Amino acid sequence: MSVLQNLEELSFEDCVNLITVHNSVGLLDKLKTLSANGCRKLKTFPPIKLTSLEKLELSHCSILESFPEILMKMENIRELHLGYSLITELPLSFQNLTGLRTLDMFYLNSAIVKVPSSIIMMPELTDIFVCGLKGLQWLKQEEGEEQMGPVVLPSKVEWLSVLSCNLNDDFFSIDFTRFALVKELALHENNFTILPECLKQCQFLWYLNVSGCKHLQEIRGIPPNLRHFFAKKCISLASSSKRMLLNQGLHEARSTVFCLPGAGIPKWFNHWNRGTSISFWFRNKFPDKVLCVLVAPIQDNFFRSRVFINGKEYTGYSHHHLTGKHHVYLFDMRELRFSNSPYEEPFESEWNHAKVTFPRGKYTSINHAKIGIHVVKQENRMEDVTFTDPCSKTKSDVDDINSSDSQSTSC
User: Fold this and answer.
1) Is residue 32 part of a domain?
2) Residues 6 or more apart from 332 whose CB is under 8 A from it?
3) Where does the record place the Disease resistance protein RPS4B/Roq1-like leucine-rich repeats domain (predicted)?
């Protein structure tokens, strides 16, 4: 290999009988692409000092036990995908991949994968995706790490996803405040019992998903700008945490989409009924802030909500996620992807009929659904909003309208 110093691409891909790679491969400083994907008998990989390397592929090396040592700074690798191997630990020298922006680790077959906690401080690393590990353990860089003083720069990680990795409460022991800049956090199907109070310090966090965390009992802090929160199948979640997540002030102040276990409409909602649709009436313009809640046992992974105004459909594509037993799905209607926005359209000065409906899906348990509507007073003229048909003089008329698909109720 030493005679191939100008080589830019080298692939051992799917060399199923390859056992070792010569040390000289790690010294080809013109090399831009190095792939050993699918080398099922490869046990070790030599240290590398490849300053020009842009792409390193080591997935599907099913008995590879260690990630190669990085002997010097390598600035050109932007993404690294590691999967289906026996890698048990990322070396401290991993930090020499100074240009790395995206790290994926998935379905590593070792018992526990050890990761130096200092990796989250890599200068360009913004996206971390980890899935299907038997365990994940953060390691201190060295004994002196705790003596760095109280001022620690935050990690640049903005998207952190650790799914189905058997995480327990120790996962948050690495001083989670270092993730102060994280915007999206996905922790599906893990075993921790609490979400710690330090999440309040993640002021940029707008998306949090802990669905399938069946042991989660307590949420001690809600990030100040959290808008999307999903806790499907969190069957152990305490009532106190549910009340905190359904707080009126929280949802009136933000444009939220929340899903969590529950069987009741929040008491502060203006109006609710049983069934698959609900109506309200407004004058002049569509209310600036309308919250909708659906409570139902839904088996579809995806189902749609639809909005009609005077018989005209305004909803574009929207998807919601409820699964299994009764869940509360609460959302701000501004979060729907309208095909043509009702917020920008002038309406009649007379009463206009708005109807929100959830069409029946193949597995949707329609018979037990409850739907609620809440119009936020601080952002709307409540004299221009009503929850009973202003054109109807008797209750029977109201019932007839609610059960029909009337196209318009201007009067």
Assistant:
1) no
2) 251, 254, 255, 256, 257, 289, 290, 291
3) 50-240
Q: Distance between CA 370 and CA 367 in Å, rounded?
A: 9
383-396: pLDDT as tens digits? 999 999 998 754 44
If DSSP codes are grouped into helix, strand and coil, which group holds residue 33?
strand
270 three-state secondary structure? coil
Identify whether 35 is part of a domain: no
User: Containing domain of residue 322, as a range?
Assistant: 271-411
Number of residues in the chain? 411
pLDDT at 262 over 50: yes
CATH number of the domain that residue 390 is part of: 2.60.120
Q: Is 186 helix (H, G, I), strand (E, B) or coil?
A: strand
**Which H/E stretch holds residue 354?**
strand 351-357
Q: In the 8-state DSSP scheme, what is residue 69?
A: P
Number of domains in the chain: 1
Q: Is residue 129 part of a domain?
A: no
- What's the mean pLDDT in 313-318? 72
**41 domain residue, yes or no:** no
| pTM score, whole prediction | 0.89
DSSP states along 222-266: --TT--EEE-TT-TT--HHHHHHHT-HHHHHHS--EEEEE-SS--
| Contacts with 18 (C-beta within 8 Å, 6 or more apart), sequence order | 12, 36, 39, 41, 42
Q: How far apart are CA 207 and CA 249, in angstroms?
A: 18
Q: How buried is residue 240: exposed, middle or buried, by Cβ count under 10 Å (0-12/13-18/19+)?
A: exposed
